[in-house]
Design a protein that fits this description.
Helix content is 56%, strand content 2%. By secondary structure, the protein is mainly alpha-helical. A two-stranded antiparallel sheet has the order 1-2.
């Protein structure tokens, strides 16, 4: 199997992960599954758009590039053996690096948000803030009662940011694999390289 086929497999995996990241970030704008009365009541890290920009937009372009590699002619672009596949594989390495940075951005934002906890109403007089410190609520569910409103905002934020954290980690691994795959395709050519995802023949 060729490196182009492996890239296509990776690209096909990144697309649904990017869509899932976009949806998770959008849902975070509705704390506890409800429309926020005030944008200031939304957790700050949500506004960093980790899932929309990092897991989503910055991942869509690399994924599309990876998907397109399978359709390139093994002998080069337009029959020119001096270009084409090797250059395309080199380009995919650059896009893999961009995707890795985007996924890493979302990963860091999600980790910070999980450690910090959600923004919520912490007193009956309507004061909003961050009642948790250094992720103490993660191991002690009794602390969740510190958040009076929105209802269920703690599990809501924790679940969605955990999803973004996992997606970011998986995307970073896939982009790292494609970076290595792209370097192999650049140096060795495509048609004789080993691949993945069960293929057994050249492109």
């Amino acid at each position: 199997m060729c490196t182009g086929s492996c890239a296509k497999c990776l690209g096909g995996t990144l697309i649904p992960l990017a869509v899932l990241g976009l949806l998770a970030n959008i849902l975070l704008f509705f704390p506890g599954g409800r429309v926020a009365d005030n944008n200031d009541h939304i957790t700050t890290e949500v506004w960093y758009f980790g899932g929309i920009c990092g897991n989503g937009i910055l991942m869509i372009f690399p994924a599309l590039v990876f998907l397109g590699l399978k359709n390139n002619d093994c002998c080069g672009c337009c029959g020119n053996q001096s270009c084409g596949k090797r250059f395309a594989m080199f380009t995919s390495t650059i896009f893999a690096a961009i995707g890795f940075v985007g996924a890493g951005y979302s990963f860091v934002i999600s980790a910070v948000a999980i450690n910090k906890g959600p923004k919520c109403q912490v007193s009956e007089n309507g004061t909003w803030g961050y009642p948790f410190h250094e992720g103490d609520y993660l191991g002690d569910h009794s602390l969740w009662s510190k958040c009076l409103n929105p209802t269920d905002v703690v599990p809501w934020n924790l679940t969605l940011f955990s999803i973004l954290l996992i997606i970011g980690g998986v995307q970073m691994c896939l982009c790292a694999i494609q970076a290595i795959n792209g370097l192999l395709g650049t140096l060795c050519g495509d048609c004789q390289c080993c691949g993945c995802c069960g293929g057994d023949g050249p492109v």
